[in-house]
Amino acid sequence: MTARKDWDTYFMDMAYMASTRSQCNRRHVGAVLVQGKKLLGTAYNGAPMGVPDCSEAGCMLVEEYELVRGEEGEKVVKKQRCIRTIHAEQNLLLFTDREDREGSVVYVTDQPCWTCANMLANSGIKEIVFHRPYLKDSEKVTTLMERKGIGFRRLESYEPPAGTLTEVHH
């Protein structure tokens, strides 16, 4: 008899299963909303409903520059992102109710970007659990969650279910 999965593994597995619906060429991301032990919603990243996605129409990449202040002074960091795709966390917020989000936990395959972190910070959730780090925004997202009192943790030793992990292109 195999060991029963713990709740973190169980819900992160569901987030990875949701990510398999993504058609994004760069990153498949899934997210689930959980209240207690009850699954309230799932989402993945992709183009708006009824609009050709990146696999059909190509990525809509834009370059952005961010001024980063650190101990060594200021430096400009160049970022490239696709603006066709709605992120999994954004879709999760669009398709769940505020009442359901109050005090809930979001499990997401990837650490939220800055924009998603801001949205989640105002969504009523109490915790974000993620697997893969997103280093571009990690420090400022972590600081935001600390300031908001939102739990923020990575499942480092987690192993996604077979067939759900996709190659990540930056």
Automatic annotation (TrEMBL):
Belongs to the cytidine and deoxycytidylate deaminase family. Its cofactor is Zn(2+). Pfam families: dCMP_cyt_deam_1 (PF00383). It comes from the Bacteria. The lineage of its organism: Bacteria, Bacillati, Bacillota, Bacilli, Bacillales. CDD domains: deoxycytidylate_deaminase. Keywords: Hydrolase, Metal-binding, Zinc. This is dCMP deaminase family protein. InterPro entries: APOBEC/CMP_deaminase_Zn-bd, CMP_dCMP_dom, Cytidine_deaminase-like, dCMP_deaminase, dCMP_deaminase-rel, Deoxycytidylate_deaminase_dom.
